[in-house]
Amino acid sequence: MRNQILKAAAEEMMTRGVKFTMSNLASRLSISKTSLYEHFASKNELIYHVLAIAIADIKSQDEEIYANPSLTLTGKIHALLKVAPKSFGPISNRHIYDDLCHYYPEEFKLVQEFRGQQIDRLSELIARGIELRVIRPVNIKVLRQIVRSATQELFSYSFLSENNMTFPDALAAMSDILVLGLKNSHEKEQGHV
């Protein structure tokens, strides 16, 4: 039952963000609120566990990429930038990050700490690529901020909806731009624009 509650809570978060009520969740599951509280002491605890599952899912995907011997260094960077949670499907409520920050700061801290660890590890991989001269020298601090800001902005429901994209689609496009750049490697640059 606990897993069913977590899955239903994730579905509520996908549609209503974190503003869903325990009554909404109980109705979705056709159970009483008392039954919910037998498994989770509070809505905060429930949200924490949903986020923890999504983070564990992303960590697992990241580890597979880091450990994959068939991927080149740039291939790993490209793949890491595209990782999105698969466990519950994409959460498409545009206010979820803001709502987590304002109403669930402890749970939001879990997400922020994980994103920081993820970006730290990615930065180390990029620095290694620069040392090996596989990647041209770039300002890693600026790149870190670009990745952090871009992933948060790409999560915007309105952006995704207006452009008929999913969050994974947007991450893939961002990854292509960051890893492959803007210059067409097949064309010779001619003249000024």
Automatic annotation (TrEMBL):
Residues 1-58 form the HTH tetR-type domain. Residues 21-40 bind DNA. It holds the Pfam family TetR_N. Signal peptide: none annotated. Coiled coil: none annotated. SUPFAM superfamilies: Homeodomain-like (SSF46689), Tetracyclin repressor-like, C-terminal domain (SSF48498). Keywords: DNA-binding. GO terms for molecular function: DNA binding. This is Transcriptional regulator, TetR family.
